[in-house]
Amino acid sequence: KKILFSGMQATGTLTLGNYLGALQNWVTLSDEYECFYSVVDLHSITVRQEPSELRKRARNLLTLYIAAGLDPEKNCIYYQSHVSGHSELAWILNCYTYMGELSRMTQYKDKSKKHADNINAGLFTYPVLMAADILLFQTDVVPVGIDQIQHLEITRDIAQRFNGIYGDVFTIPEAYIGKSGAKVMSLQEPTKKMSKSDENVNASVYLMDDVDTIIRKFKRAVTDSEANIAYRDEQPGIKNLIDIYCGCTKKTPEEAVKDFEGKGYGDLKAAVGETVVSRLKPVQERFNELCSEKSYIDGIIKSNAEKANHYAIKTLRKVQRKVGFPDRA
Ligand code: TYM
Q1: Which of 32, 112, 134, 286 is deepest in the core (most CB within 10 A)?
Q2: pLDDT in tens, 172-226
Q3: Where does the pLDDT of residue 320 fall: very low under 50, low under 70, confident under 90, or very high at 90 and above?
Q4: What span, in angstroms and rounded, lies between the C-alpha atoms of 82 and 13?
Q5: pTM of full prediction above 0.90
Q6: Atom 4, ligand 1: residue with shortest CA distance
Q7: DSSP assignment string, 172-241
């Protein structure tokens, strides 16, 4: 089987963007690939975290992966910090990555504006750790949202550079981007990405929002004054609603536009809200059930970390040997 790797940060509460852009596709692809899904807690500390909060969020995120439909017996679901190979490979790859290429990363530029009081080296080398995550497992495919494409490209560049020096060490990974939901936009400013860290709570739908909140947020979604339901860039609010609808139903934008022929924006907002509710409800219910199954989750955390480590060590040892570190007795 081909290998799939992906991960999410345990910062903030997951949004509908994380779900439609990534998590939902992970579930769809999980039968076809040998899958590794990590809670990337090492990445999270590039911005300051409250330790007990981070621990709680990481646990919730791991539980949510399972609640969304990933079978933890078949998919390797684990904490990045439990597999030391991530950090070890990241160090090595740091030495094969240029300052210049890292300083071109848009996420770094955005984050260093936002966290101007804490522009640490980890924030700068964040993409190298992400490259290490992916390359550690000889990954073929990485399902992500559009915002991660640049990081995937630098991962490929680093891998190719390394292979160019030492021979075929790393598989060159490909991004997998879903047909819809790959860039869910803010409900309040539809030219901006929906983000966990948005200060306006009405801008993002959170995975754990209750029914009324979801319906209300869609009702308040910013649209336009054209009164025309069409899927086009000139109407970003409406386009986003259609895209969300398609992400939940797997319909094409053309089919969606047909569904709303002769209808108004109010109908569209209500229908999209309902569709999202019915998509998220089973995930929320399963999440709540799983939260009371402590020993089951604990067992998964332990066994999957061992499994991930088993795979990670293979690549790590190969890389260590290639760069010239002494053999182990
Ligand atoms: P993160 O935690 O910001 O986001 C997790 C996933 O959700 C996607 N996503 C979106 N998709 C559509 N619309 C949106 N508005 C939206 N917002 C977020 C992201 O594209 C991502 O797929 N650096 C990564 C985590 C990471 C990783 C990796 C991913 C670390 N190592 C290795 C893949 C492979 C990040 O911060 O994602």
Answers
A1: 134
A2: 999 999 999 999 999 999 999 999 889 999 999 999 999 999 999 999 999 999 9
A3: very high
A4: 22
A5: yes
A6: 8
A7: --EEE--SSSTTPBPSSSTTSB--TT-S-TTT--BTT--HHHHHHHHHT----SS------TT-HHHHHH
Degrees to nearest 5, angle at CA 222 with 146 and 193? 20
- CB of 139 closer than 8 Å to CB of 155: no
Return the half-sphere exposure (C-beta side, CA atoms, 13 A cut-off) of residue 156. Answer: 13
What type of residue is 204?
A: S
**Active site members:** 111, 193, 196
Question: What is the distance of C-alpha 266 from the center of its chain?
Answer: 31
Q: To test ligand 1's pocket by mutation, which of 40, 136, 149 has the most ligand atoms within 8 angstroms of CB?
A: 40
Residue 269 tokens read as 């907002």
Q: How far apart are alpha carbons 223 and 227 in whole angstroms?
A: 9
168 annotated to a ligand binding site? no
Residues in the chain: 329
d(CA 78, CA 36): 8
Report the separation in Å between the CA atom of 161 and the middle of ligand 1, taken as the mean of its atom positions.
24
Asked if residue 266 belongs to a known ligand binding site, the reply is no
What pLDDT does 13 receive? Answer: 86
Residue type, 303: S
Compute, in angstroms, the gap from residue 6 CA to the centroid of ligand 1: 8
Q: Whole-angstrom Cα distance, residue 167 to residue 170?
A: 9
